[in-house]
Amino acid sequence: xxxxxxxxxNQTQKLRFEKALEQxxxxxxxxxSNACVAVADTILVDHQDGLLKGHGTTDFDxxxxxxxxxVVERVNKLVYVRTLRARYKPETGDIIVGRVIExxxxxxxxxxxxxxxxxxxxxxxxxxxxxxxxxTADDELNMRSIFVENDVVCAEVRGVQHDxxxxxxxxxQKYGKLERGQLLTVPPYLVKRRKQHYHYLEQLGIDxxxxxxxxxxxxxxxDTKDDMVEDQVAKSEQQNENPGxxxxxxxxxxxEIRQNICRAANAVRVLCAxxxxxxxxxxxxxxKLSNSVDIHEMLGPEFxxxxxxxEVERRRSSKRI
Amino acid sequence: xxxxxxxxxxxxxxRPMEMRQLRAKxxxxxxxxxxxxxxxxxxxxxxxxxxxxxxxxxxxxLNDQALVRCExxxxxxxxxxxxxxxxxxxxxxxxxxVIRQTMEACIMTHLMPxxxxxxxxxxxxxxxxxxxxxxxxxxLALADAGIPxxxxxxxxxxxxxxxxxLLDLNYVEDSAGGPDVTVGILPKSTKVTLLQMDSKLxxxxxENVMQLxxxxxxxxxxxxxxxLLEKTKERQKFHGV
Lengths: 321, 241
Description:
The structure holds 2 protein chains of 2 kinds.
Chain A: H1 11-29, E1 36-37, E2 42-43, E3 52-53, E4 57-60, E5 63-66, E6 70-75, E7 78-83, E8 95-104, E9 107-111, E10 118-125, H2 137-141, E11 152-160, E12 166-170, E13 176-178, E14 181-185, E15 198-201, E16 206-210, E17 215-220, H3 232-240, H4 243-251, H5 255-274, H6 280-289, H7 301-320
Parallel strand pairs in A: 3-7, 10-12
Antiparallel strand pairs in A: 1-6, 2-5, 4-5, 6-7, 8-9, 8-11, 9-10, 11-12, 11-13, 14-17, 15-16, 16-17
Chain B: E1 22-26, E2 34-40, E3 43-53, E4 67-74, H1 90-106, E5 116-125, H2 130-144, E6 154-161, E7 164-167, H3 171-174, E8 180-186, E9 191-198, H4 203-239
Helix pairs in contact in B: 1-2
């Protein structure tokens, strides 16, 4: 996104920012002093015991050589280079956010920041219906009523097929089309795989989905009922309500919510530009920090410095414990 | 014309074996997956890498390796006389091809089957040695994009004027019509991936000139490596553990 150098920091801000950087330097120095490698650097290893060459390494004249820029990681015998800023590498079970780029026979193609487009089969999604059944030709014709081109969709990685294509699935109510919000793209290394990728920020009334592929969705909160305990009676009652009233409710987002969405989105933008890890907690903290400034000022130099300082504070306190 | 003065200085004040000042910056194009800006003296180029991504033209898709594409353009304002050049002229098509082949030699294309990598290089200011500068910029941009490579390809030119081998020719020396050798190497294994020469040179002198250019390539490689390492360290620092 934005470059830090393009920010017009004034003299005091520059000093404060440099001080924050120094402290970051100091805090990270102990953990890994010289684990960083560039392309074609030799990685120092003991050749005595068995060695497993992992991703981002290759053998050259009996030496282990890095093929990408990143950080050397060692797990028992395995040595690999963890890349910073590379394209997303999918793993089965990842929760991702993608954009539909094509409606093809029985499938949608999604852009998910991978080397290829991902495939979402019609048969691997649950439609709103109650009963499970085979997908018919009619369903295939009605595919555009579910997702069309440029829709933002949330799904789960199902796995890589034999032909090398990546398949997705969306077999729950929580997956599916995302509406009324913003999609942000950040480098995938900033989002860590966790148990929870869906977050409902109650105090802001917004949903936050941190896709493992670096696509982050910030949108209005939508109540998703667990499809296992769906109440049939309640559903039929809902349908009897005035349809016109329902329509206006569904398309209108209050100004307050919209402002909150913008705040959260700007928080993500700032964190991404500074290259800090992005988690729900950090985003909430950044939004809290922004309460003293206007939404548009969040992208100004002063707020960048504030965020950097608070990150230093956060890391320091986590270190003490 | 005298290209090397009796004191042993060239037209721009360099010694015969001296390179121009190098400057590099990673991350020049926001939307690209990897990008870099590279300067060799007054030659300034910008490179952007997109991909690996889905192949745009299905018929070109390769099932065992990635497709590498390259486009070289010169900005209208890059040369002394502002001239509108057609996009697909022969010179730029040839240089596109050269850069593509050089980069293909170092990218581990077999790791990214059924995908495509696009490299766009643009010359912002031309002062001789544009193809070397473009290759260096493209290497940096590819490394920034996190694309696995065997080695960092670097390139440098050398010439032979006034019976002196000269390193890293500028525009005036380049247009003198003397021999101009452009070399691209993989510095780790010292393998040559690119070798081009205009006009003729005797065998023994050629070896000297090429040796000089190879030394230049190694100097560029050291610099590029430093820049990459610094950027990686910075990113890691911000990212934390």
